[in-house]
Design brief:
Layout (H helix, E strand, L loop, with lengths): L9 E4 L6 H8 L3 E4 L8 H7 L5 E4 L7 H7 L5 E4 L9 H7 L2 E3 L6 H16 L2 H10 L19 E5 L3 H10 L6 E5 L5 H5 L3 E3 L2 H7 L2 E4 L13 H6 L5 E4 L8 H9 L5 E4 L19 E3 L8 H19 L11
Parallel strand pairs: 1-2, 1-3, 3-4, 4-5, 6-7, 6-9, 7-8, 9-10, 10-11, 11-12
Helix pairs in contact: 1-12, 2-3, 5-7
The structure holds (2R)-2,3-dihydroxypropanoic acid.
(2R)-2,3-dihydroxypropanoic acid binds next to loops.
InterPro entries: D-isomer_2-hydroxyacid_DH (IPR050223), D-isomer_2_OHA_DH_cat_dom (IPR006139), D-isomer_DH_NAD-bd (IPR006140), NAD(P)-bd_dom_sf (IPR036291)
Keywords: Oxidoreductase
GO molecular function: glyoxylate reductase (NADPH) activity; hydroxypyruvate reductase (NADH) activity; NAD binding
Length: 329
Amino acid sequence: GSRTMSSQPTVYVTRPDVDSSGLELLRKSCQVSTWNEALPVPRTELLRQIAGKDALYCALTDKIDKEVLDAAGSQLKCVATISVGYEHIDVEECKKRGIRVGYTPDVLTDATAELTLALLLATNRRLFEANKQVYNGGWKSWAPMWMCGQGLKGSRVGLFGFGRIGQEIAARIFPFKPSEITYTTRTERPKEAKAVNARYVNFDEMLCNSDFIVVCCALTPETKEIFNADAFQKMKSNCIFINTARGGNVDQKALYEALKCKRILAAGLDVTTPEPLPLDDPLLTLDNIVILPHIGSADIETRKEMSRITARNILAALAGEKMESEVVL
Ligand code: DGY
């Protein structure tokens, strides 16, 4: 137990380097302790530190499962993650124990959609490949067909997932004049689709007809490795595959094979399995891929606000009040 004399609630923060504005909010009324390195807290340390705490401020790099909740003890009231994704938290187990779960949707929607467009354009117009030529002497002269890519204009774009982020991606793709935007979701969203003239299609149709496929869904048991060898097999040979959701949505070995044998044209990934991607991963030997280190929401103001929302979620939960963004369990 770590109740202080002043009986302030105790919070453990797994990331000392979240923007200080969030930590300051917590420190006003809580006793805050943090992990002390800019890398994920080791599991054993987390298990030790969470014991007796009232709340946990965590990130997607922390696996919050039964073992962690057991180690915490029954006084734990809240787990708040500085992310919109919460597949790293066993929410069912939290529900059973009456532990409230906070996350940070909405605030990062625009930043993530913006990064998705940046990644898409970097991939289809081969920006990194081209940039390399400037430095390695590959740039001999302007040449008619050199470094040509496949434009968005007139193309069919398929969005896998059409939630907050998917809709904002669609809104940003729309001005590039694709021939059609389609989306695949569990439930049709006609009202939201209308704004960007998007058409609902089933998974198979999206796979078979898209020039671009953009993954922007949550990682759930249903979407885990849904992009497998079978899926890549159905894609058009000019298909460009973009993933800014979770690496777990993709069978990465199948993606490698599809890119290697030019079954599809190219891929742009902001998320991989694992993260970081080992330096000897076969994906890194390919020319037709752009890989970014999970920076979708990495916009300064966005990350600052994520830090504060996570703190406010904790403060609300500890006060027994409505949280700003609570995972409905
Ligand atoms: C999230 O929020 O889930 C992103 O992956 C990181 O911001």
